[in-house]
Design a protein that fits this description.
This protein is globular. The two termini are 33 Å apart. Strands 1-2-3-8 form a 4-stranded parallel beta sheet, sandwiched between helices. It is 41% helix and 12% strand. Strand 2, helix 6 and strand 3 form a beta-alpha-beta unit. It has 343 residues and is of the alpha/beta class. The chain has a single domain, classed as NAD(P)-binding Rossmann-like Domain (Rossmann fold), CATH 3.40.50. The chain contains 11 helices and 11 strands.
Length: 343
Amino acid sequence: MSPFESALDSKSHPCPPIENLEQIQRAKFHNKETKNIESNLQDSNNKKIKTLINALNNAYKKTSFIKGDLSDTALLDKIFTQYNIIAVIHFAAFAYVGESVSNPAKYYKNNIANTQNLLDSMLKNGCKNIIFSSTCATYGVPKRLPITESAAQKPINPYGYTKLVIENMLKDYAHAYDLKYVALRYFNAAGASALFNIGESHNPETHAIPLIIATALGKRAEFSVFGDDYDTFDGSCVRDYIHVDDLGRAHILALQYLLNGGTSEVFNLGNNQGFSVFQILKACEKLINSKINYRICPRRDGDPAALIGSNKKAAKILGFNCIFENIESILASALKWHKNARY
């Protein structure tokens, strides 16, 4: 019996899935073996993919990799038919805010249409439990901070809108087809896993922490601060950062919750505190004991001034709390990983 499946897609988040597999191993959910549809298999010769595969093979005696795409409904049905899957953890999505503004069609097709393919195949084959990777981008520009799950959802970019559409799709499927789901609204995933030697590595890289670290290590000439005139205490964007290991634990708690009879729910996953871009810069400078070159650039389309989430609901219902509670520990784990150039 396989209680875990990561969503099948060649276009997805690279970090959280591997973290969750580690946590699933520790939670001992699997009875005989755990089968994973790895969601970032673009090129079998890619060093990143080899690192992920080796990490999984070290963690599990039996791990199955199936390269594919959620648009391939025949493959989805084949997988659900072959394996006795009782739950899905769905990470796969495009997740670049700027790109979603310039090419929304790409996001509607992959994020929304392909998620519907997954849900339809699940139901067709008797799988009715899903953990969904949503995002704080569904909130848009919040009226109050920290943001609670009951706050209005008014996304200001197509990426956030696609995730909101999927959340609504889950509600409708739950009502009509007895699907059970937990939607986890991520704030900013960051840091690196020491156990798996896995960190942030996107192409193109758009996330602040890996870009700042790359500049600190001399791999980039300067770091771009997109806007210093926001309505925040220092003018730069403020975000809530959560370590990938904490994200991994949250997914396991959500899976336990569903499999133990919990009803469909949504939860914020953040750190209950925000840090500005300039604060991240200064904290990284302190870690390396050196100044980091940066320049001020125009604002990016679709960027809210501040996003800080409340974890109170997840703490109360799931028993979730962050172990990495300060930005220094998150940065330190990321810096250590980037210094070793894993891939």
